[in-house]
Amino acid sequence: MKNLFTIGEMAKLHNMTMKTLRYYDQIGLLEPIQIDESNGYRYYSTEQFEQLNTIQYLKKLGFSLKEIKSHLDHRDITGFLDLLEKQKKLTERKIRELERVNRRFQNRINDIILAQEIIDLEVVKIVDINERKIVRLVEKIHSEPEMEVSLRQLENLANMNSSIFIGGVGLTVDINDLKNQRFDKYNSIFILTEDEDIQSPLLTTFQKGTYASIYYRGDHTNSFQYYKILLDYIQRNDLQIIGDAIERTIIDHYISKNKEDYLTEIQIQVTY
């Protein structure tokens, strides 16, 4: 059986490209065992198969080519164990991050499923709600474009990924504006977060307490009339407003093109 293989044969045997093998040669990671001076053809031997297998194995583990080359150049047990320990820690960090992402997706799924089951629309309910962790950017927001810009700023400042917060974004109306029945602007934008270890100066909470709540079919542009319904209920029942209003569109045009599916909730913290 022959013991020399062209670069094309080597690439085919190891399910990779000739371009990759040429690059490995260029950086000194895996050089051909022989080069034909007359035509420049590169040849590899079966003795190099295990070396290439090791390179591919370490790449799949997440090691950089620089780290792989360093190991292959020096080859010692201590160095290899250090490499594995380093990659193990990186892998554990990735697992924790994926677990957080998975929890966020599950929370959004639960959110939307529960939203589909709500039947008491445009009816004020008094509900007790536990403390909720949020990241919050306090600034005046008067329009949808301003809201989108503020959301990007919030995500960047809190080092968050927007792709996982569908349904977790909301706005607040200042308590003084509420009492004066002014609903034409918001005073902050927030993101609900389930992360236990999030580190951000924007991290805060919505207090545990009693809230007057209303759901309606529509988005932020339809909220004006529902604030009036909430405030009328609060006044009739001798309740006191003790916090900013919390407004969150759970299902909007990004989730469904059918406006009949849209769902927004407004909450106002109250006390008897």
Uncertain spans = none
For this structure, what is the CATH class of the largest domain? Alpha Beta
Write out the strand line-up for the largest beta sheet, numbering strands in chain order: 4-9-11-10-6-7-5-8
Number of helices: 8
Q: Overall mean pLDDT score? A: 88
Rg is: 29 Å
Structural class label:
alpha+beta
> Judging by the overall fold, what is the CATH architecture of the largest domain?
Alpha-Beta Barrel
The CATH superfamily of the largest domain is identified as: Regulatory factor, effector binding domain
Strand segment tally: 11
For the termini, the CA-CA separation is: 90 Å
Fill in the CATH topology of the largest domain.
Multidrug-efflux Transporter 1 Regulator Bmrr, Chain A
Largest sheet: 8 strands, antiparallel
What fraction of the residues are assigned to beta strands by DSSP? 25-35%
Helix % is 40-55%
Description:
The protein is an alpha+beta fold and 272 residues long. It has two domains: 4-75, Multidrug-efflux Transporter Regulator, Chain: A, Domain 2; 102-271, Multidrug-efflux Transporter 1 Regulator Bmrr, Chain A (Alpha-Beta Barrel). It has eight helices and eleven strands. It has helices spanning 7-13, 18-26, 49-61, 65-74, 77-117, 144-158, 175-179, 224-236; strands at 4-6, 34-35, 42-45, 125-129, 132-141, 169-173, 186-192, 203-206, 209-216, 240-251, 263-271. The chain has an eight-stranded antiparallel beta sheet with strand order 4-9-11-10-6-7-5-8. Strands 1-3-2 form a three-stranded antiparallel beta sheet. A hairpin with a 6-residue loop joins strand 2 (34-35) and strand 3. It is elongated. The termini are far apart. The mean pLDDT is 88.
